[in-house]
Amino acid sequence: MKGMVFTEFMELVDEKLSPETTERLLEMSDLPSGGIYTSVGNYDPQEMVTLVTNLSGMTGTSVPDLLKTFGRHLFKRFLASFPEFFEGINSSLEFLPHVDGYVHVEVRKLYPDAELPTFTCEVPEPGSMTMTYESKRHLAPLAEGLILACIDHYGESLEVRSETIASDPPTTKFFITPKQT
Amino acid sequence: MDDKVELLQRRLERERLARKQAEMIIEEKSRELYYKNQELERAVKAEHLARKEADLLRQSLEAFTSKLDIDEIASQLKSILMQLVPHDHSAVYLFKGGVLAPCGQAQGSDKGGDGATVCTPSLSPNGARPSARPIIIPNAQNDPQAKPWGVHPDSETLMVVHLFAPGRVVGCLILESRQADAFTPTAARLAQAIANEASIAFENSLLYREVERLSALDALTGINNRRQFDLLANVEFQMDLDHFKRVNDTHGHSVGDKVLVAVADVCRRALRTEDILARYGGEEFCFVLPQTDAKGAHAFAERIRIAIEGLAFDSNGRAFSVTASFGVSERIAEDDSPGSILERSDQALYEAKGGGRNRVVIWKPPEPQIEALPQAK
Known about the structure:
heterodimer, A: alpha+beta, B: Beta-Lactamase, 5-stranded antiparallel beta sheet, 12 strands, about 45% helix
């Protein structure tokens, strides 16, 4: 897993909780890498699982909720780092189909060995979308956090419901629909 | 408070290590990129070289097809090889009468040579199928295979490239190098490709020469025809068979033709290499004898006259012989045209016929002009 994911995660804990929490988390996790991450490195994804699980234990927040928060954080970082991906796009339903066809293509140019999830978008009716997420990493809540942050970014009134539709490979379907009032 | 300090120290230490790790990763990545870049540069260079080679090959092909002179083709071949296959000496050999003879102008540090012919057991025009790939002889100074090519004393390696025409070998190309590993498989392949183009040009040149030779030859007797004679003329004497019409009338034209062939054969055998013989028409033959005066030509004609007289023919059991008359004339002025020399020898021939045939007559100027004429050489 890309080092940037780890450094962003630790930044998030610093920000939302405290640097002390981050240090305690690293200490109790006793990671093979010693918690020494650099954005240009590559690390065992199992370390992320350990970190999130331990943080959940420390804070009492569920792992999916932590991942969702992390997803929202990553979206902001992504928006700040790569504004060109959002040029000329005016809604989340317009942006989300770009993730697989454009964003991931660009990512693969930089990191040919990256293990990327796949997103398949469908439009069942105007104003709604389903996104099928398939990844070995079990990070569907993180994807959900990203989607939610995207909706917030465009200030839309949409809600997201998820449903696990297969376990091998782990597949989750997100239903993005107008908020019921 | 101490806890907080310790915590921050731990963080600082971790960040220091992370930076170090990042530096190492970046260094490794740049090294990777450097090598990849070098690899790409090599590929680009190889591509450039290949393109240059292809260009030169195409140019050489064009240059070869525009040439019909064997020495010019050989020179062209050497100059192309000079650019594409690094070497120190080169030579082109072509088969002439079953032996390999060097050809082509000296090119750079050419093998030059004394024009001596060589023939090696490994290469013969009709012998065992030679290798389609060049033969590389690494230890040229001591390898007996290299010896017949007269290896230069400073050469380490020798490469023999065969020149093929359809179904046979027309010659070979010899490259020598002072470097031990000069001839790589790529160089050998390239040399063969260029040699193949040259071979086609050599073959075309030989065919062209043959066509030229045939168009210059009389179809019946195989000696030069009138057209060729006019081109070369520096006429010395004419020969006409006596009463040849009678031979044809009595024995038939096929016998007459046999007589002509036999007479031409006698004449041809009497020629020196620089002499020219042509059938000028019917039973008339002309000779050009360079560096010979009228006296020498007379003696030469006399020998032929006696030889013809001695020929024995047979026609349906009837033996017969023929005689010939000769008129000799030499060039009397620098601007003497072939036509006027011929005209004078024709006059002398007429005189020989009138004087009783089977004789040689040297042209003499008419009496009143005698003082105006130069002395015979």
